[in-house]
């Protein structure tokens, strides 16, 4: 009888151990298949698995939260540095895709750019769910406040809409906003042709705020390589010697406006070579 009781106890212990082993194995299998973040570990070392989070649905919730009615007003500019009442700082970055034409007859040139602006808007901060949500993407610029930049020496220009509009806005968890768009511009370039055909010319791309004065909006070139140029850039009849970035302020009857400039130093290739 004692042997029988001992055997029963051993069988009961073995059964209990087997149940614990199977439960732990199942929990590990569940966690492995779903996601490490989907498991909750309790004090008694038991595992309970939850359905995997759909972060695309979370993106919609976040967008509704930060851009919903009563939460955000795109008519109001963001605060200055560290939430102060100072001017909004917008950093500019350009990628020059091509320079299509340089006309000394019309004194103009045409260029295609990827144009980028970055600024902080603390009203757009959001929970990144432990790094799972790196940024939000929008294609409607009207949803957020936008700098009112224009190209003051532009003759004509257009956006690119094939296959879809070549534009996006990214909102990062800390409130950083990145605006990127592909544009083509024809810009005036007054030229001195006294030394033609061995002349050197300086063409510029001038950018300025249309309505905001420097009390409210300041443009700065992005630190560290603010202008990139496509490799093997081909220029008709000219060679790009170098480019320079610069700043100035424009005083008008309505106030002082922030202006920033990209200057192209060009020299004409002899005999069109």
Structure, explained:
There is one protein chain. The protein has helices at residues 2-33, 55-67; strands spanning 39-41, 47-49, 88-103, 108-120, 136-138, 149-151, 154-159, 167-171, 176-188, 200-209, 217-221, 227-229, 238-252, 255-268. With 273 residues, the chain is an alpha+beta fold. It has a domain at 88-268: Acetylcholine Binding Protein, Chain: A. The N and C termini lie far apart (109 Å).
CATH architecture label of the domain at 88-268 = Distorted Sandwich
Would you tell me the structural class of the helices and strands?
Answer: alpha+beta
Number of strands: 14
CATH class category name of the domain at 88-268: Mainly Beta
Task: Spell out the key features of this protein.
273 residues; alpha+beta; Acetylcholine Binding Protein, Chain: A; eight-stranded mixed sheet; 14 strands; elongated
Would you spell out the secondary-structure blueprint of this structure?
Layout lengths: L1 H32 L5 E3 L5 E3 L5 H13 L20 E16 L4 E13 L15 E3 L10 E3 L2 E6 L7 E5 L4 E13 L11 E10 L7 E5 L5 E3 L8 E15 L2 E14 L5
Parallel strand pairs: 3-11, 3-12
Antiparallel strand pairs: 1-2, 3-4, 4-9, 5-8, 6-10, 7-9, 8-9, 10-14, 13-14
Short structural summary:
The chain is α+β, with helices and mostly antiparallel strands and 273 residues long. It has two helices and 14 strands.
């Amino acid at each position: 009888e004692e042997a029988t009781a001992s055997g029963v106890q051993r069988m009961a212990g073995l059964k209990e151990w087997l149940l614990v082993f199977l439960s732990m194995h199942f929990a590990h299998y569940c966690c492995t298949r779903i996601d490490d973040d989907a498991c909750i570990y309790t004090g008694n070392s038991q595992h309970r698995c939850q359905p995997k989070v759909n972060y695309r649905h979370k993106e919609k919730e976040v967008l509704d939260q930060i851009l919903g009615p009563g939460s955000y007003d795109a008519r109001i500019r963001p605060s200055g540095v560290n939430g102060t009442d100072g001017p909004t700082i917008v950093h500019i970055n350009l990628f020059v895709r091509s320079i299509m034409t340089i006309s000394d007859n019309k004194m103009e040139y045409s260029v295609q750019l990827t144009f980028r602006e970055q600024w902080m808007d603390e009203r757009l901060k959001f929970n990144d769910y432990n790094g799972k949500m790196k940024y939000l993407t929008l294609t409607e610029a009207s949803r957020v406040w936008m700098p009112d930049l224009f190209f003051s020496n532009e003759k004509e220009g257009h956006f690119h809409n094939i296959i879809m509009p070549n534009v996006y806005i990214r909102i990062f968890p800390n409130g950083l906003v990145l605006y990127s768009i592909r544009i083509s511009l024809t810009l005036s370039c007054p030229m001195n042709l006294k030394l033609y055909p061995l002349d050197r010319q300086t063409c510029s791309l001038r950018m300025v705020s249309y309505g905001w004065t420097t009390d409210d909006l300041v443009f700065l070139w992005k630190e560290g390589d603010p202008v990139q140029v496509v490799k093997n850039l081909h220029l008709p009849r000219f060679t790009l010697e170098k480019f320079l970035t610069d700043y100035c302020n424009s005083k008008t009857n309505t106030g002082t406006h922030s202006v920033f400039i990209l200057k192209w130093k060009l020299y004409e290739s002899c005999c069109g070579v």
